Amino acid sequence: MAKNKRKLKIMIGSTVYGFEDQLSQIVAQLQLLDYEVLNSHNGSIKVNPKLSNLDNCIKAVEECDLFLGIIRPFYGTGNIGEKNITFEEIKKAIELKKPYWFLVHRDVVFARELFKYLTLKSGDEIVVSKNKLFDPKTVEIYEYVIENHIPVTLRNGNWAQQFYRLDEMMTYINTQFNNKDFVENILNHKPAHNG
């Protein structure tokens, strides 16, 4: 009798507020594709009551096999001091070289382009404050994910799929995660060592 393979664990980053209904559908879709989903909103992250929310989320990133980050016009779920849980999860997933995929809301992409051209006649930069419609720090997350700090010719793993509607997100999610052989090949890929 063949052994049952363990389900791959995919973590969906902790961007929640104002997005709960869509997030629930994304979780359900990934479960339907036979993944074990780790997500704070879904209640599927192990919570050590002796740790902060940030530390519990970072432990979930360490536990997962795959990471799905969603960059929305709001800066994520929670801020602890200067740290934002969503951004810290993203940085940890990249640092640990977890296979990762990112979705970015079109408003973040649009704002990034717009901010490049906003200046006063005096030449001073316009400061955009966090507000109920948009948090400019989301542009910082997006630039981190697309490796804006690295020359274009040296970037690798910097794809962030733009979306506006849930169906666009689902197309990307199904394309990436429906074929388990594709995902397993990514997990088992060992980079060549030059020299």
TrEMBL record:
Pfam families associated with the record: DUF4062
DUF4062 domain segment(s): 9-93
Top-level taxon of origin: Bacteria
UniProt-recorded name of the protein: DUF4062 domain-containing protein
